[in-house]
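Posting for a labmate who doesn't have an account.
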Amino acid sequence: MWTEKENKLYRAFTFGDFKEAFAFMTRVAALADAQDHHPTWTNTYNKVEIWLNTHDAGDIVTDKDRELAKAIDKL
């Protein structure tokens, strides 16, 4: 579930191993690039953390972030 705090949408994802986590990141990268909206994220082994906000709007959460979050949830 995405949470909104400090002007960011946040969600952590946990996978079976590093390869699964990296494959997920690759799919997210394709979505983000298609929407020209790129996340802040980290990956440690099987965990991927994503933060979304819109820099052009003053680093706040916008519909652009919510749309990308929904698309990520469908992966």
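Reply:
Got it, the structure tokens are right above this. Strands lie at 3-5, 8-14, 40-44, 47-52.
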